[in-house]
Amino acid sequence: MPVPTRTIQGKVLIPSGAGAVGGLLVITLSREGKVSDGVTNHKAAGMVKIAVGTDGTVAFALIPNDAITPAGTFYQVAGRLPDGFAWRDSWDIPSGGTPLDIGAIPSIAGLPIDPRIFEVPAVTVLPTASSEWQGRVLRVNPTDGSPSYLAVCLPNGAGVYRWDIFATGGG
Amino acid sequence: MPLETTRVNGKVHLPTGPAPGGEILIRLSEPGSVSDGTQTHTIVGQAVALIEPDGSVDFTLVPNSVIAPAGTHYVVEYVFLGGTRKTEKWNVGTTPDPIAIGDIPIVP
Predict the structure, then answer these.
(1) How far is CA B32 from the centre of its chain?
(2) Model pTM?
């Protein structure tokens, strides 16, 4: 039996109603867990990167959080558009036999979501990743002339914090 | 079914006359979602509307009244050529459509 997944569909739009073309979603499981295919327990961990298609369409699959043990996981979502706009969200994906619209995903209230981008000029090394930086998005402008980049601090499946660089150049 | 949008047109005026061109940066007050009758989509980011050299504008927005959660508004920043900036908040409805930019209800 396959590991259960739920298809996420729909569009990522900007306020004009146009698609957020060129956008990127970085989706990370809040902590490592297990998921069963009915026979074997598999490890659920890590991160997926989803590119927003032309006209804003996205279509991808995630393991429902209620199929992951121990209970209580969620997905941390960091999004970024080509113009530099970044946002964060936290998703709780329920099991279900039908695709789930991206605009109808239950968002977890109360988790720290910081939509700001913190400018970090004139450094070449990111600060040490830690819970202090969780959810923060930094735009780093290296002093050596290499392209600027965005990095978000997230815990990996084992609860160890790291910086995920998810966009370079641009705004 | 097509996504519902409201067209915004008209002219942007400064106290000295028509705005000399620029752009309007428009973003939702918080992430929202909107249905096209078939699927529910998410709305993020910002729209950039051009202010023509004669001050005219013509662009569309998803009306706040069809966005969930209820109570969103648009945070609007005018960036005029020359660097002058002005901010305000809009509450865009489904009617009238089109709406003149000067008639958009301002959120205090």
Answers:
(1) 15
(2) 0.75
